[in-house]
């Protein structure tokens, strides 16, 4: 019974499957080489990333970096070679799901052991410079905040001067007899002058801090300018990081000095002591009525003194309550750590580092889709319908060899004689040769 003939659609599917197989055969000639190039490229960038993590530059460190990068290259090549062969070949959903899970787990392992180091090699220096720039901004904010608080404290000098001037004016009025009704420099006058002198000393102390604040702020800006220059200067970023670290230490000292130069706590304490530490003089009125007037005036002065002291204390407390500058500490980072910390700023570099490792996954899916199309094109066709001419010739030759081995000796000789006409002449030819040898022997005898 002859096999059923293929329908037109089935024949077209077989031709399509053969065409795809031809393409795959051509692609397989260089797929392994391409995969090897990708693995080697990833290993090179991995070596650069590992080198940036090692503290020493000796032969052992170089050997360790080379060993790690070679292991990464071999691992990537073997992993994707397995999947490119096995994933397209499996047919069941369970098997494909298992290989997909293995692919996902392996991809995570590749990213963990290689991709982040590739990103460090691609954008490590830029990431470290980004870290330096971010640190400069933090230090600038802290310096400006400390200077702002110091200036706010220096502004209390005007409040102190206003209170001092008010006491001086009251003392002049007392000297003219306007307050207590007694002209001269009596007990009331001495109380007013006492507080006026205290405030004048405080005002002088505050004024002495102004040039110190200005000098510290100018010096801090100079260091900041140098730190900004270090973030963009050409050359190895490691050497610049060392100088940047030294400048950061000096700048942190200046910020601390500015915080200490704030006179707000001093003014707060002075305002608290202004009304609490009053040395009352002895009343020097000649009559009881005069001394009573002096006592009443001193009481009024103390009330005014307490009110002015409360106002000054509240102004100082407002300055003290200002938010202090943020403590900034520069922490040197390696290229790999900087790439991870500022990953959002280097998305293209991360994408390239991951793509060079995971690009073979696309090839795996392409092969799986193509193999599925080949199997679909061959559905409904028998084996004899899918054989090529070369495969058919090889099959016929193999069949003849098998028949020749399994046939009886006589049959094999006949078949050999049919296939090789020279075989029939071989026995006669042997007899002729033996006769010639015998004749030569007789002649010699």
Automatic annotation (TrEMBL):
Keywords for the protein's UniProt record, in alphabetical order: Membrane, Transmembrane, Transmembrane helix
Region (Disordered): 406-445
Recorded superkingdom: Bacteria
Compositional bias per record (Basic and acidic residues), positions renumbered to this chain: 413-445
Transmembrane segments: 25-48, 60-83, 95-117, 350-369
Designated name of the protein: DUF4407 domain-containing protein
